[in-house]
Amino acid sequence: MSRFQNSYLAESVGYANGVASGVSAGKQAGFTEGWNAAIRECNPMIEERDREIARLSGEIHKGNAFIKELRANLEKAHHVSELYHAERDEFIERHAQEKAKRERLQYLVNLAREHGVKIEDFDR
């Protein structure tokens, strides 16, 4: 198949002949040996790159496992925190109730003292 629309044009014939001559000249000059040398030189680099990719992928998987563990711990901590806040709110409510009772009792004690009742007699 020609690179040009008309394969009988001079450009087409010249191109085809040039490619054929270049390929044969390259083979005669050791093109194949040069290619093999380049492959021998590059294969270790490619293998090193592949090892580095595998190492980094392993690091990513370790990181993902660590993140998963952190999320699980965070959920546990969140649950404990919710329990703490529920207990705290209950304590605050009870404290407010006891404070109201104490204030009411103090009011009654003060009222009794105003009317001359000795509160100390009730302790006996």
Give the secondary structure arrangement, pairings included.
Blueprint: H1 10-28, H2 31-114
Structural category: mainly alpha
User: How many separate domains make up the residues?
Assistant: 1
Q: Give me the strand/helix succession.
A: HH
The largest β sheet comes out as:
none
Beta-strand residue percentage: under 5%
For this entry, what is the oligomeric state of its chains? single chain
Distance between the termini: 122 Å
Tell me, briefly, the overall form.
rod-shaped
Rounded to an integer in angstroms, the radius of gyration calculated over CA atoms is: 46 Å
Tally of helical segments:
2
Indicate the low-confidence ranges by residue numbers. none
Description:
- The chain has 124 residues and is mainly alpha-helical.
- Helix content is 83%, strand content 0%.
- It has helices at residues 10-28, 31-114.
- The radius of gyration is 46 Å and the shape is rod-shaped.
- 0% of the residues are buried.
Summary of the model, kept short:
This protein is mostly helical.
Properties at a glance:
single chain, 0% strand, mainly alpha, 2 helices
